[in-house]
Amino acid sequence: MSSKLIRGTFILTLGTFISKFLGLFYVIPFYSIVGEEATSLYQYGYVPYTIFISIATAGVPLAVSKFIAKYNALGEYAVGRRLFKSGLVIMSITGFMSFLIMYACAPWFASIMIVDQQQIYTVEEVTYVIRAVSFALIIVPFMSLMRGFFQGHQSMGPSAVSQVIEQIARIVFLLAGAYVVLNILKGTVVEAIGVATFAAFVGAVFGLLVLFWYWKKRKQHLDELLEQDESKVEVKLFDIYSEIVVYAIPFIFVGIAIPLYQLVDTVTFNRAMSAIGQAKVADTVFGIVNFSTQKIVIIPVSLATAFAMTLVPLVTSSFVSGEANKVKRQLDQTFQVLLFLTVPAVVGIMLLAEPFYTAFYEHSSLGTDILRTYAPVAILFALFTVTAAILQGINEQRFTVLSLLFGILLKFALNIPLIKLFQGEGAIYATAIGYGASIIINLLVIRYYAGYSLRSIGGKIGQITLFNLIMAAVVFGVYVVLHPLFAIDSKIQSTLLIAICAIVGAAVYFFLSFRTGLANDLLGARLDRIKNKFRKAKA
């Protein structure tokens, strides 16, 4: 692998990580500005938008970059430029059409979510928020294709920088706008949330401006490549677009997995709560389940996303080369490291759910209970992401669509009955069952086509489980002793309590892992590099 490709992959991964990090932690000040109940209104607007934008753009940068890179390697630079120009026109049209559809259908979406007059928000207020966020659809598909064009030329910087700038601009406008509306203009919470969702459009504008700057800066070099065009291949753009659509579909489904589950909640949650006489608190509980706790639970899942990004080319290369043993080793390593790092994070969130929820938002018994229930689902989110990436790597991505649809159907069938029985926790149980079914299907397909089974790492999974149980016992003991000494409704003291317990837990977990050799087995090469650096520093 060339140093240029390694550097490019690192830059793109770093940009994605920074963007996700910002997207996870802006919720702390946002919650403080708008309050608990308003998060449900924000989510009512964002769930349909996320699905629209994922369908319009998921897989496009990767698919476009793949084809441009392919024809650039053949010296057919004009093909990539033709694809780029025609693609910009198509994405502009589809983006504008998506905006019109979402804007026009906003009252219908809102009427699905608001089913009882006792709910906090009205159909008109939810319609306003959905329409505010829909404007971003005009720009994002266009921007997505530009990122794919640069990536196709092995230039990852523009995509990474534009992602980060887009996220920063969105968050700054979101927080500043909501604060100004509520505290300076003395507007309503609905108006503040409308501004907050419109921030998606503002962020997209800034992201696009960055890409335009890179285009202007590099156009001369790109035009020089055109002059070297071989012009030996006649390519029909229709054929390329057909293949792009087929290639992008699995990425679309993986990208909208969580939003689809949230859509099921959006459609059914309030109906189920209203049926059991809980319409007055339905909006608040919905916000806790689908916004507040979900933002915390998704933190360990970011690790799985990082693995999925690097896994596909490695597994593909080994699988295509027929190196079955190498594929098995790569999958062993992936699942073991994934569980080794994700499970203790989940255990920590479960044990420290009360201070976690307080540190992020405010002290809430309901929020604590829902977070504790939701935390284990992070392992399922991570496993689904990675198993879907593996299916892509062994060219069986069609089963990703099948497994996800089956899981969604289970969620849809079980959601209302479970919500009626367990209220907010019921929606989480239905999500866990749906994801669990999807993961089982993915693992069965991987076993059939790649000859791989998790039984081969059963011993390591047992070790990880045992070490987490020991760590949990120690952390729980520390928490019980320290809990009375801290004001648990204080954000600062809750954060301090989390830090102390996390340090103790990490020390116990990694001591056991190093002592038994588990850490060396899973992270050997990385640990050796760290040890060598320490030795050099001492010398």
Automatic annotation (TrEMBL):
The Gene Ontology biological process annotation of the record reads: cell division
Taxonomy, top ranks, is: Bacteria, Bacillati, Bacillota, Bacilli, Bacillales
Superkingdom, taxonomy of origin: Bacteria
Indicate yes or no for the key word Manganese. no
**Transmembrane spans:** 12-34, 46-68, 88-109, 129-150, 171-189, 195-215, 244-264, 296-315, 335-353, 373-394, 401-422, 428-449, 461-482, 494-512
The record's section on InterPro entries has: PG_synth_SpoVB, Poly_Biosynth_Transport, Polysacc_synth
For membrane topology, the record states:
Multi-pass membrane protein
* Record-given protein name: Cell division protein
Q: Supply the alphabetized keyword list.
A: Cell cycle, Cell division, Cell membrane, Membrane, Transmembrane, Transmembrane helix
The entry's localization annotation reads:
Cell membrane
What Pfam families does the record point to? Polysacc_synt
Please tell me whether the keyword GTP-binding is annotated for this protein: no
Task: Please classify the protein's predominant subcellular localization into one broad category.
Answer: membrane
Q: Which GO terms describe its cellular component?
A: plasma membrane
